Amino acid sequence: MCVSQVPEITGNLDVAQGIDGDAVLRKMLSRIIRRCPLRRPEICEALSGRVGVTVTPFMLDCYPSSSKKHRFPAAFIEAFCEVIGDDGLQRPVMGQRLRQLVALGESQLEMERLRADLLKLKGPERGKKEKSKRSQNG
After folding, report:
1. How far is it, in rounded angstroms, from Cα 41 to Cα 96?
2. What gap in Å lies between CA 24 and CA 21, rounded to an integer?
């Protein structure tokens, strides 16, 4: 399961709802780093190149640690997600409206994928008929 699909870490980080957003982000960051095929020094080098600040393995280890006072800078999130290849860390910091738009887009992509799979199952002739019918209807 992709980190971005784990229910406990994709919701709103609204502290008023009793959610410890800091703990959630630290837990998520730890999981993402642990699952990443890159070694910590490789992550740091790539991240440093994108954010223009030297990020060390020590810093990378401090961010997810609940015993440390270091916090992962929000300005690093997009670059970190690009380096890691997982946009899951961006989701909890989005507002509800943006999360709903992302979910809608993902649903649309899934429907398109399923539609393509169905057309493959129906065979090439059926797919041509469907395409022809749509082009006639405008």
Report:
1. 34
2. 5
Rg (CA), the chain: 20
Q: Which domain holds residue 126?
A: 95-138
Q: pLDDT of the chain along its 138 residues, tens only? A: 333 444 444 444 544 455 677 888 889 999 999 999 999 999 999 999 999 999 999 999 998 887 778 888 999 999 999 999 988 888 888 888 998 999 999 999 999 999 999 999 987 665 566 666 666 665
In terms of domains, do 1 and 63 share one?
A: yes
Single pTM value for the model: 0.65
Do 52 and 34 lie in one domain? The reply is yes
The terminus-to-terminus CA distance of the chain in angstroms comes to 40
The tokens for 32 are: 């993402």
How many domains is the chain partitioned into structurally? 2
